[in-house]
Amino acid sequence: MKRASVLMIVGSALLLGLFFFPLWNIELGAPQYPEPLGLNIHINGLQGQNEFDIQNIDGLNHYIGMKTLPKPEDMWEFTVFPIVVGGMAAIGILIGLLGYLGKLSYMWFLGWFIVMTILGILGMYDFNAWMVDYGTNLDPNAIMKLQNPDGTPMSYKPPLLGHKKMLNFDAYSYPHMGGYLMFIGMCFTLLAAWLGCNGMRRKTKPIAKKQLATR
Amino acid sequence: MKKIYYVIGGLLAVILVYMGCNQAGSNANGALASSAAEKVYVAPGEQDEYYAFLSGGYSGNLTVYGLPSGRMFKEIPVFSQFPTSGYGYSEETKPMLNTSHGFIPWDDLHHPDISQTNGELDGRWVFVNGNNTPRIARVSLETFETEEIIEIPNSAGNHSSAFITENTEYVIAGTRFAVPVPQRDMPISEYKGNFKGALSFISVDPESGRLDLKFQVMMPGFNYDLSHPGRGKSHGWHFFSTYNTEEANSLMEVNSSQNDKDFIAAINWKKIEEYVNNGGGEKMATNYAHNVYSHETHMGTSTMKKEVLTVDPTEVPDAVFFLPTPKSPHGCDVDPSGEYIIGSGKLSADLTVHSFTKMLEAIEAKKFDGEAYGIPILKFEDVMTGQVKSGGLGPLHTEFDDKGNAYTTFFISSEVVKWALGSWEVIDRKPTFYSVGHLMIPGGNSRKPFGKYVVAMNKITKDRYLPTGPELEHSAQIYDISGEKMELIYDFPTHGEPHYAAGCPAELLAPKSKKIYRLDENKHPYGINSPADARVERNGKEVHVYMGTIRSHFTPDNIEGIKVGDKVYFHITNHEQDFDVPHGFAILGQNTSELLIMPGQTKTSVWEPKQVGVWPFYCTDFCSALHQEMQGYVRVSPANSNIELSWSLGE
């Protein structure tokens, strides 16, 4: 079952796409911005979709008292995420190689997948928590202090996934190339684990193969 | 009784037929009208197919329109002060209007021509001429701003200009009025034989577009009216129409209309260029201004040049010839192939078409019909290849489509006439409203015209629009020329007096149109990269305010310690880097215009307060929701006060 190991190696390597492409993208369109302002979220920092978008988003956000968008040094995540992603990719590739050489059980593939899934969920949770803070922790002296109909202060938290209307802006939040590559990569590793485990079963119980065939 | 039935029956039949016809007629009109509407209708949010650059004439500026909608997008200030943006008022742009006669706030802008490569429009620059105080300007088609103005010495009424050769090697500028060269105190009546007609060849740097007056051909003292470059086979030649070959100096409308034929002057500039490059020509002392604007320093600088190279055309063998052309020709147009040179005798009914090939043959065979001031005159019959018997009166200007047709305006009979190159037969004619001067087909003055629309620019408006008192804007008409017959599809008012126009496909310019100036490329000596650098400095009676603007405040917005008699320079930098977010600046009692500052730009306005008080300034461009709050104060104290200079924001 060298195929499973190769899938494991390729799947883990696809995580490295996060070093080249954004994980996530948030676009802000408005009547005044027919070409939307956009924010690309990389694992090591934020970048404007166009060169001056960050500056322009910050400029607009000062009216409603939002903090300026964080620089890489402002958030520990931008230091830790690359280490975690790089580390997990390296471990995944190593596990795949050892599996290829038959030195490791394919259960390691599954183990890697579970760890990565937990880390991913933690990452999303952290990302959402930052967005909550960014969208609700507002300057009390903001130029425009807007309230919901029930009297609570309006939140400008962008959606984690999908579309949300905020004042004159339509915010769209979706994974970007790096995120998709990671998703595909993780699917590969899960498939590798499944193929690997199946293959092992077949090796140990040749009858199983027949059973499978007759099914 | 039977007779009566017949009569009634007959009447009914007539009525029915009549109604039928009427209905059919009105249906046809309706269908036609709606298709014309569809042709010019550019739906909200949609964009036009073509850019059109219409000269502003006495507005001194260049206007930008869309075709086929006729919507005006911008007025580009070139030769005239323009309070809207502060052009010619700001410290940075005042040098652009400097001349050997000092600062001139106005000119008469006539003929735009778009730069070309291999005879096709390349959309880098548009060149225009100032008619009154002879100047040529270069306008960038990335920023749509004037980048350079060069004054033309020895010239007067710079009219046969600013036409470019097919690789933008030269911008050509010919004098309309013959004048003494060099200028001197002499009796006007001694014009004949003494005045000169200078034709200027201004080289264009292929990279920067920078202009340089390379040489002037000193022609006899005729009036050089219009000109066009040869192209294709005739590349290397330039053709000028002339009038007043009589060399009259008074009551010109009569005295310069006496000769049955004037000339088209054919100039082999390649030959003259070679002559000049080999050390030919004579340097002459003169004085003219060369003004250049930099988008890095956001500043114009004016340099006075002291010398010009002049060429006596009789010294260069086989370089200059005269082609007799009837009736004071105005337009002198060259077809896309470069073979036909069309002279529009403005007092005649017919057009004269000269053949470039026949001209070369006649020159080769030395078949001359005498000479004028040493310049050989070719025989009319030897060079003329066809005449368009138009049936119109007063032809002025011809442009071309991409299917071998030519379109000529007729001022007196007020119409556009379509005719075929080669057969010289008239195909169609349509009235214009009223008295058309020039017309424009995008690329119609190049090897590759885009023959979809023709725009006719009229001199008389009368009843075309709702009346606005005695003074009216001029009127233009758009015709669809995609079919055999021209179809009038739209009427629109134009700004100033468009004398001529140039157009090009939108996709040539739209993608490269600049959105902002980069702050990190701003090299203005008084610009500031960030509002944190904002400050006020005093140097004797001069005060320099280094001010920043970003939505929605000035930094600083409170200034104290200014005194009556100070000269205060407000250097305003717009710190936005977002498309279409200009800021403006105006202060009470400013003896100049406001400033309109584009993102990343720095502009300077001088204010000389004459009265003690606290004077407000504000942003004049509705920049944001808090635009109204974008304001500040300057405290002006008596001249002898000892209040320290101070400035602040938000304290």
Explain what the structure shows.
- The complex is a heterodimer of chains A (215) and B (651).
- With 215 residues, chain A is of the alpha+beta class.
- Chain A has one domain (2-214).
- Chain A is built from six helices and five strands, in the order αβββαααββαα.
- Chain A has helices at 2-14, 53-61, 77-100, 107-136, 177-204, 206-214, and strands spanning 24-30, 33-42, 45-48, 162-166, 169-175.
- In chain A, strands 3-2-1-5-4 form a five-stranded antiparallel β-sheet.
- In chain A, helix 1 (2-14) packs antiparallel against helix 5 (177-204), helix 3 packs antiparallel against helix 4 (107-136) and helix 5 (177-204) packs across helix 6.
- Chain A starts with a helix and ends with a helix.
- Chain B folds into two domains: 50-512, 7 Propeller (Methylamine Dehydrogenase, Chain H), CATH 2.130.10; 524-648, Sandwich (Immunoglobulin-like), CATH 2.60.40.
- Chain B has a ten-stranded mixed β-sheet with strand order 6-7-8-9-17-18-13-12-11-10. Chain B has a six-stranded mixed β-sheet with strand order 41-40-43-44-38-45, with no helix packed on it. In chain B, strands 35, 36, 37, 39 and 42 form a five-stranded mixed β-sheet that branches.
- In chain B, 11% of the residues lie in helices and 43% in strands.
- The interface between A and B is small, with 9 and 9 residues.
Helical content of chain B, roughly? 10-25%
Which ranges of chain B are low-confidence, i.e. pLDDT below 50, for 5 or more consecutive residues? 14-30
The span between the termini of chain B is 108 Å
Query: How would you name the CATH homologous superfamily of the largest domain in chain B?
Result: YVTN repeat-like/Quinoprotein amine dehydrogenase
- Name of the CATH first level of the largest domain in chain B: Mainly Beta
Largest interface: A-B, 9 and 9 residues
- CATH second-level architecture of the largest domain in chain B: 7 Propeller
Strand content of chain A: 15-25%
Number of domains of chain A: 1
